[in-house]
Amino acid sequence: MALRARALYDFNSENPGEVSVKENEILTLYSEQDIEGWLEGVNSKGERGLFPASYVEILRNDATSTFNNNSCTTSGDTYPDSRYPQQNKIENFSKPSPPGFNAFPPPALQRQPPQQQQQQQHTYQSPGQVSDDDWDDDWDDSSTVADEPGTVGGRYHDYEGNGPSTYRVSTSSMSRGNAQQAKSSATVSRNLNRFSTFVKSGGEAFVLGEASGFVKDGDKICVVMGQYGPEWQENPYPFTCAIDDPTKQTKFKGMKSYISYKLTPTHTQNQVNRRYKHFDWLYARLVEKFPVISVPHIPEKQATGRFEEDFISKRRKGLIWWMNHMTSHPVLARCDVFQHFLTCNSADEKAWKQGKRKAEKDEMVGANFFLTISTPASPLDFQEVESKIDGFKTFTKRMDDSTLQLNATVNEFARKQISGFKKEYQKVGMSFKVLSQAFEMDQQVYSTGLNQAISFTGDAYEAIGEYFAEQPSKDLDPIMDLLALYQGHLANYPDIIHVQKGALTKVKESQKHVEEGKMDRAQAEGINERCNIISCATLAEIQHFHQIRVRDFKAQMQHYLQQQISFFQKITGKLEEALQKYDNA
Amino acid sequence: MALRARALYDFNSENPGEVSVKENEILTLYSEQDIEGWLEGVNSKGERGLFPASYVEILRNDATSTFNNNSCTTSGDTYPDSRYPQQNKIENFSKPSPPGFNAFPPPALQRQPPQQQQQQQHTYQSPGQVSDDDWDDDWDDSSTVADEPGTVGGRYHDYEGNGPSTYRVSTSSMSRGNAQQAKSSATVSRNLNRFSTFVKSGGEAFVLGEASGFVKDGDKICVVMGQYGPEWQENPYPFTCAIDDPTKQTKFKGMKSYISYKLTPTHTQNQVNRRYKHFDWLYARLVEKFPVISVPHIPEKQATGRFEEDFISKRRKGLIWWMNHMTSHPVLARCDVFQHFLTCNSADEKAWKQGKRKAEKDEMVGANFFLTISTPASPLDFQEVESKIDGFKTFTKRMDDSTLQLNATVNEFARKQISGFKKEYQKVGMSFKVLSQAFEMDQQVYSTGLNQAISFTGDAYEAIGEYFAEQPSKDLDPIMDLLALYQGHLANYPDIIHVQKGALTKVKESQKHVEEGKMDRAQAEGINERCNIISCATLAEIQHFHQIRVRDFKAQMQHYLQQQISFFQKITGKLEEALQKYDNA
Description:
Two copies of one chain form a homodimer.
Chain A (H helix, E strand, L loop, with lengths): L2 E5 L18 E4 L8 E5 L5 E5 L3 E4 L26 H6 L25 H4 L13 H4 L30 H17 L12 H4 L2 H5 L13 E6 L2 E4 L8 E11 L4 E10 L6 E4 H14 L19 H20 L7 H8 L5 H12 L12 E2 L7 H58 L8 H68 L5 H60 L5
Parallel strand pairs in A: 6-11
Antiparallel strand pairs in A: 1-2, 1-5, 2-3, 3-4, 6-7, 8-9, 9-10
Helix pairs in contact in A: 9-10, 11-12, 11-13, 12-13
Membrane topology (chains A, B): Peripheral membrane protein
GO biological process, one term (chains A, B): mitotic cell cycle
Organism (chains A, B): Lates calcarifer (Barramundi)
């Protein structure tokens, strides 16, 4: 029987090899095993090609039989819709990039399926793919759609206990939570929604005092009271990291190819080589470790054209942006797994695997992460915190809308310059050329100078057309790169805010319980204290966000304007050159 | 019975009040009397409006009865198609402006009906309109389509002897020609096509020695041998003439309105007031007087919106260009009718009318004009002349094509700047503004400077959008004005070349006749001499054309580039201002 799927959303093909699908269109698949989040199949028009796995649902006659498949699929059928509370949808206000949004020049924002995918997404993951043995055998970028960084919400949406989970953070923190549930949940109610971010991030478990672990001195993370409120203690040893010379490498006698990036951190000055899959692995570790830190998204995956120069250059730029945000972050920059990634010599396979296993077995993730945080002496005023968080929520919504709009405008502006503007200037240039050619037939000696000057003017306008076409890569593309990065952060914040709000709700509940005599003051005090930790961390993260935002947008706007000024000066120079030709004409 | 007409060509309405018609569409007319070359009627879709009279032929059941009409129409029925030789069409290679060509900004080229109009055009002229009495009673611009300057060929296409003609030149020269026909036409054949330009301009009559008249010293026109061949003797008293302050005047207690222009020639420094109809009258006099001089076309007529500021300003610019070409021309600048126009005080009605009558009764027009020309001592080599003329013919064809193309390109470029370019820059500006507004919600003191700088950048891009929209009136419009003027000249040259070629053909015929013993040498020598005069005048006119062309295009290209440079400098300045805002952000 042919394997079939139904399209959940419209998908417009943008690259060779892709095929467009319409919502509700029935597709025939070649395999239910996706390749980097893409499935191959034939649409109803008979066109064959790739489409995002997350845009379709596989149609099965027998849902239970799938558990016996090699691919061990947790398909949509095992997630009845009724189990996904609307609340979660409302909380998650971050708008996804519309499909086709970045059709031009190279797409700068990560390609995200429509918003609902967080609830309806399918994970096609074979258990073998998480094993260590697979680490080096796999081809570049070969992780599955489930941990694709673009699908932000995915990290919280595994299904507890039902089949193998790809997210260690959730299972580990939840299992701890479940174990301790009996002793503390009698007095403060638990969220009924076990899939809420608050629960799954470990936030609830921590607030309810269920997290425990030994915090080494090196793991301590300090929130200090700064000029504008709580902030992360600055990294006393700031560093940056260059990413150079992406080169194509092969192994298995050329059977497998991948791109290797040279990373040189300033604090070690030792170059290490890393592949995209290493970045991807690191990203997954960071996301599971830090519940209220906005981990910058790594550049999107791409199924086809991974070895094309444009793509490699674009990905490198994306990784540089990402690295810049990583090294700028006081907490992320210092964390063990990132340091391992930056400093471990990849030739020393044993050391690398040791660090890798250590990171994957890190206990201080999720709920336990909060244990590592030390806060300023005086606790925060929760009312003030709530108002700040609400203000920030409104802010992120507005910023998300405006960056989306700016991205669309800039994208279109770049497209117009490359096509229309160039064409118009070159048409003018061509017409001047044609006029000068007509004038050359006049057989008059005294018009030679004029004819040459007009011909030069024609060339000048052709050149100006080229200037317009070349310009976007110098000024608009960097803006789009910046916006893509911030779109990633903005997509992270709903979950971060959700965790803080969950903690605050527990505080309110505990106060009520104390008033009603159902809880003793000490226990409520503990909830207060832990909510204070979460709030300090959240506000510190927000403060950090604002600081890098102001830094990045200032720098990028200056760069943009400087480029624009050079551009118009170059045009002026060309025209002045043309004008001079008339002096002796 | 309803008056009906058939459309001869497609006409696309461009302005309010006009109605589109399709070739062969049957139209119902309100009146066969046109208003400034426009007829009012209803098309087959029932749309009512104006269309050019020259684009339609009036359908009549009884052609002869029209002679009893007040309007004394010489309709298409009296010109059977078979009487229009194809030869004439082929000679006349000047391409008409395609309808709709100048839809934007204000149309710069004169609106010409398709090429064939020269053969098929109808003249709706009431005899009353040529009387002196009508001169001041008529409303502005009220002459008919027959002498509309845009319809270039019209000046040669009256119908000899059949009903009243509006063209004195043709009737006078032809009647002279007819009178003398008996004595000279026995040996050299006459053109069978009595409507050919060669015949109607008086060229044939002159070559055959049929022109005669008393040439006063003041009428003498010298062709001298210059560096590059025959040229008009320079005007020893060069002058220019300013055209200022078009003002709206009324008469008949406000019943009639017209626009009056203030003309101040430098050689008199006396201001005179002239209306468009005076220019129009002058233009008609010049066209009938000078068969091989390219009289610059006056700006096109317009039925509606004549008192709108844009139109008045545009017409004034057109008249300034026209005046510049008139005063630059060694022959036109000095001729009596132009001097009368420039110097006669319009308040002195008697003097004005005297000069007007004198000009209208000028004997030295058409064939007789050639009598006034004195040539260099040594006659031209006709083979060389023929090669030069052929070269110029090719040149005008190429120049016509290239100026048409340039005009279309520039027109579209202007449209794009006013619409698309402006929109793109303003959309970018708006997106920056929206971003700055979103950022203003961040409640962070340290980002105030950045927010203001981004907001200023948004304003800067909005301003730049305006700059783009304003620019075409400064640089592209003048180019279109120039091209319009030259399109007019290029439309004149086929007829001028035709006259010279006709003369050369007569020379060849006469040589053959001499060889065959059918003509005596003295007679052939006379034809040779007169062909030499026509050739000298034609080459002098071509030389003048090249000189003003090089002068005008050089000046206009310099002006264009200077404007473009200022434009891009203005943009750069605005961007530098924006960039500075980030210094303290």
